[in-house]
Amino acid sequence: MAVFTYGTAEFWVLIAFLLFFAIVFYLKVPAQLAQSLDARADTIKKELDDARLLREEAQALLADYQKKSREAEEEAKAIVEQARREAESLATETQKQLADSVTRRTKMAEDKISRAEAQALAEVRGAAVDAALKAAEKILASKVSGAKSDELIKQSLADIKAKLN
User: Fold this and answer.
1) Fewer CB near the last or first residue (10 Å), C or N of the chain?
2) Domain range for residue 64?
3) Which has more confidence, 74 or 3?
4) What are phi and psi of 144, to 5 degrees?
């Protein structure tokens, strides 16, 4: 039983099959197919590399923006803290100036009161001296008479004024 005899269909299928493969190998279809697949693989690899680079750039940008955000927050906190310290310093300085002003005004008022007391005391003493002199003058004038009395009165008045003032 000959399977591949000249007139049978199997024979012509075998011939067509061998001819097909001969043409395929003669035209280098497997090499072209491999080259096409390699080119497609290279394209996919390049796209994957580009995607990886883009992802790395995006991550770098994200990290940079996060860093800038943290720095901005820290700077804002520092500014707020500085403003708080300045406000506290200003409040302390204002309180100190107010206390100094109150102390200074109190001292000025006390000095003014002391001067007024001293002036009033001097006026009272002056009035008392004048009253004492007038009383002494009347008493001496009534007890002593003549030229000698005038001289004694003047001398006594001068001594009293000197001692009281």
Assistant:
1) N
2) 9-164
3) 74
4) -110, 140
For the chain, the domain total comes to: 1
Is 61 part of a structural domain of the chain? yes
Q: End-to-end CA distance of the chain: give it in Å, rounded.
A: 172
In-domain check, residue 4 = no
Helix (H, G, I), strand (E, B) or coil at 8: coil
Reading the block at residue 164, the tokens are 């009281």
Q: Which two tokens stand for residue 165?
A: 């003032």
What's the pLDDT tens digit per position in 92-106?
A: 999 999 999 999 999
Q: Please report whether residue 3 resides in a domain.
A: no
Helices 29-143 and 147-164: angle between axes, nearest 10 degrees: 160
Whether 28 is in a domain gets the answer yes
